[in-house]
Structures are given as structure tokens and as C-alpha cells.
Amino acid sequence: MDIIRDNDLAQKDFQDRDLIVSIGKNHNEANGLILDTSRDNEALCNISIPVDQCEAAVAKMMTNLEANKFQQFLRNRALFSVVKTKAKPQNVEKLILNEVAYVDGRDMGQFKSSGIIISTGTGSSGWLFSARKINPEDIRAVQLLYGCEEVSESVNRNLASLINSTYVFPYDSDQLYYYVREGYVRHDNSFSWRSEGFCKEIKIVNEIIEGRILIDGYYNYSLEIGEQFKIKTAPDRSLRCLRFL
Known about the structure:
By secondary structure, the chain is an alpha+beta fold. The chain folds into two domains: 6-68, no CATH class; 75-244, Probable inorganic polyphosphate/atp-NAD kinase, domain 2 (Tumour Suppressor Smad4, Sandwich). Helices cover 20% and strands 27% of the residues. It contains six helices and ten strands; from the N terminus they run H-H-E-E-E-E-H-H-H-E-H-E-E-E-E-E. It has helices at residues 31-34, 54-66, 127-132, 136-145, 153-165, 192-195, and strands at 70-82, 93-96, 99-101, 115-119, 176-181, 196-199, 201-205, 211-215, 219-223, 228-244. The strands form two sheets. Strands 6-5-4-3-8-9 form a six-stranded antiparallel sheet. It has a four-stranded antiparallel sheet with strand order 2-1-10-7. Strand 8 (211-215) and strand 9 (219-223) form a beta hairpin. Helix 4 packs across helix 5 (153-165). This is Nad kinase domain-containing protein 1-like.
């Protein structure tokens, strides 16, 4: 077994290999997520493994792999595709593991917002979680609004944690979740069902001059005004993952 750092990786290193394991994140800054104390029970970006123990941890993983000490599970993905136009006749498709930043048979109308997050179950504990989470200060504000004279900080923390735990849904779920950030829509009916919810396919028409889509924190796609894109769940293209025992 060889351990090679990504900066030293060459094409020849992929030849005559039975198994190649990539460990680590995709070079996006995760400090803001790591410092989120409301998720300190999660092993985000392998933060539970100290840097000086990483190589030993890899060796242990390989030992467990050879001894069949692991469980398999699926992480559902979504498929992003752009509707072709005369200006952009090429096909654009991209698989999504976590989320897209920037329904199901219902016209949601026109939106004014700071962006839309569309997330898989894997992404529901990341950017989507950070955008939707309730802080203890929010609980405190509601209590004060209703005239509560005694406000317990520990109760507020527990309530916030309990509410936030419902925002994370399973990795293998065949549904996506969309969340409109700071949204506004002029409509007589309730805005709530338009602002967020589960779906299996969503189609969006870009109505700003310079639109942009960011997929999984690394893939950028520029949108022209009037350009359309679709995102749909793709359970048939799920990632097969291992959980070591």
C-alpha cells in the first residue's frame, strides 16, 4: 500500500492498482462549518481524526477492508442539466453529491431572492443546514416576544439542537430539498410552500442578467438571462459507500 499526497500524484500512480482511495475534502474552506458547535457531534470532513494520526487511520481502514469489516450504504445524487438554447447548443450535465446554490408539477411563480439551495440528503447536513438552522438566540427572541420572564440558555440550546436535527434527512433518500434564501414573491396565497420543501425534480428559469450556479462547491456554470436548467433526483446513479465497523 502506498500513500501519496495529492500534489505529488501522477498519471503513472493510477496504473496496475486494484483499489484507489481518495481521502479528504475538495479544497474548499470548511472553517465556518467546522466551528459550528451545533454540529459538534458529527465527524465533518474527518475532523475527528487528528492530522498526525491520518496515515495510521488509513492503514486501519485497509485492514478492515481486507477483513470485510464494513457496511455498504448508498448516497443518492441529483442530475443537473441545462435546457439547450441557440446561444448554447451544447449538452451540459453534471451529477450533484451535496447541493446546488443559487416543483413537482406546480408553478412557483417569479422569485426575488438571494439564491436557491437545492440539496441531496448528503448535503442536508452542510450548506442547507447552515442556511436553515435555528440559533439559541432565535428561541430566546420568541420567548421574549411571548412575554416569558425567565429565559434559560440551556433550554434554548437544547430546543435549537432538537429543531435542527429534523433538518437532516437520509443519505439514500430519493428526494431533494429546495430552500429559497431571503425570498419574496407577490402572491395572494401563502408563501410557505414556495419558500422550501421536498421535490424530485425542479426546473428554474434564470431572470437576472448574470446568473451563476455553483455545484458541490467547485463547479461553476454561468447562466444567461432566460436560460433554463433542471435538477432531478438520480437514485439509479447513487454512490456506493463503505462504513467501517
